[in-house]
């Protein structure tokens, strides 16, 4: 499901304009018809050579429905229409898209982790074996379950790639949301869009991990407008944290605390031996 905010916002913008065009056009058509009928009436009256049915004038009447539809459209357009679009909406839409992609990657990561976590069972059994008899029991367990316990190259590839995707899409979402939540940064980008006579949907807004910034490019131009995410400008967006900070934050999340390495293999898989 990807009912993106950008699509919704673009549709709303188009709807405001289209509705104004339609409702004003309906009244213009009625006025045009009224002028035509009046012109014909004058000609016929002067020359005394033709009559209408006497009911045609009502077909050019401007109705209450015409009036209400036009005035409503006019108010909506005046209050809500953004001719240059909304940079904030674009940023929020891109954050939403990145979050959706992160969720998909997390689903793949979770599934393959459950497949791989049998290695934790092997590790626990092997680590706790302290006598030859216990070591023999571990060996017997491995022999009997070797096919199930063996890890494939495909599983490792899936684990690594999905983990990379989780980090990539999470960083994208955080970058877009941080800029979207900064009034100064959004205002700067919005003004740049308007100064270049473009719309927010026409420009290319993207997160560049190498440059540690959110950038905005313009159609047919090489110039980039840059919002630094490492505190290098006037917008105060200093987002980068250390590896230790990331690991500490992650170790306190529900995702980790309810996972196999925190709970233990038996607790996670079978809800036994839980502390």
Q: What value does the average pLDDT take?
A: 90
Radius of gyration: 33 Å
**Between the first and last Cα atoms, what is the distance in angstroms?**
39 Å
Number of domains: 2
Classify the oligomer.
single chain
- Strand order in the largest sheet: 1-2-3
Extended strand count: 3
Walk me through the structure.
The chain is mostly helical and 275 residues long. It has two domains: 5-80; 87-240, no CATH class. 67% of the residues lie in helices and 5% in strands. It contains eleven helices and three strands, in the order αααααααβββαααα. Strands 1-2-3 form a three-stranded antiparallel β-sheet, with helices on one face. A hairpin with a 6-residue loop joins β2 and β3 (224-228). The model is unreliable at 1-8 (pLDDT under 50).
List the topology elements.
Blueprint: H1 5-47, H2 64-80, H3 87-116, H4 118-128, H5 132-149, H6 153-180, H7 183-195, E1 204-208, E2 213-217, E3 224-228, H8 243-251, H9 254-257, H10 260-263, H11 265-270
Antiparallel strand pairs: 1-2, 2-3
Helix pairs in contact: 1-2, 1-3, 3-6, 4-5
């Amino acid at each position: 499901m990807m009912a993106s905010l950008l699509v919704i916002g673009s549709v709303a913008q188009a709807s405001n304009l289209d509705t104004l065009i339609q409702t004003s056009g309906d009244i213009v058509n009625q006025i045009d018809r009224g002028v035509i009928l009046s012109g014909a009436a004058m000609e016929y009256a002067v020359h005394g050579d033709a009559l209408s049915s006497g009911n045609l004038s009502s077909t050019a009447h401007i109705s209450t429905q015409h009036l209400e539809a036009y005035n409503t459209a006019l108010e909506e357009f005046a209050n809500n229409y953004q001719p240059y679009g909304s940079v904030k909406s674009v940023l929020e839409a891109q954050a939403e898209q990145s979050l959706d992609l992160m969720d998909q990657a997390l689903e793949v990561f979770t599934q393959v982790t459950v497949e791989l976590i049998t290695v934790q069972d092997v590790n626990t059994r092997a680590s706790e074996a302290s006598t030859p008899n216990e070591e023999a029991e571990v060996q017997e367990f491995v022999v009997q379950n070797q096919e199930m316990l063996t890890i494939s190259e495909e599983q490792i590839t899936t684990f690594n790639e999905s983990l990379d995707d989780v980090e990539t899409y999470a960083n994208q979402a955080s970058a877009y949301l941080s800029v979207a939540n900064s009034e100064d940064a959004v205002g700067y980008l919005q003004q740049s869009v308007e100064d270049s006579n473009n719309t927010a949907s026409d420009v290319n807004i993207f997160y560049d991990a190498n440059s540690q910034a959110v950038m905005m490019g313009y159609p047919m131009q090489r110039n980039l407008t840059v919002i630094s995410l490492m505190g290098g400008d006037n917008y105060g967006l200093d987002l980068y944290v250390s590896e230790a900070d990331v690991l500490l934050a992650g170790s306190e999340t529900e995702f980790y605390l309810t996972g196999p390495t925190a709970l233990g293999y038996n607790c996670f898989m079978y809800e036994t031996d839980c502390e």
